[in-house]
Amino acid sequence: MQPWPCAHAKGELLIEFERFPSSLLVYMSAYMTEALEDLAGPESMLPPPDLWDRFLGWIDPGPPRPTFQDYVAGRSDPLRSA
């Protein structure tokens, strides 16, 4: 048995959250926090080393969005048609 989320579950989650990748990050962050509490235990000072990769490392948050500095520098204007 593979730890959750296995490859199959990751595929289903990617499809389910395809339109909202940032929501998938929030969703999986909650599960990572729960797993950290379950796996680390009160006597452990360090989290399991694979938690970030297992819960968040496989999620592509999408293309980078313009920053405030991009707007100020004129590198990005969402109102200007391309």
Jot down its keywords.
single chain; mainly alpha; 0% strand; 82 residues
Overview of the structural elements:
This protein has 82 residues and is mainly alpha-helical. The protein contains four helices and no strands.
Describe the protein's topology.
Elements: H1 7-16, H2 21-40, H3 51-55, H4 68-72
Q: Main β-sheet: number of strands, strand sense, barrel status?
A: none
Distance between the termini: 50 Å
Helix content: 40-55%
List unreliable stretches of 5+ residues. Answer: none
Shape: flat
Tell me the strand percentage band.
under 5%
Strand segment count: 0
Elements, N to C (H/E): HHHH
Q: What is the residue-mean pLDDT, rounded to a whole number?
A: 82
What is the CA-based Rg, rounded? 18 Å
Provide a count of the helices: 4
Structural class: mainly alpha
Brief summary:
The protein has 82 residues and is mostly helical. It has four helices and no strands.
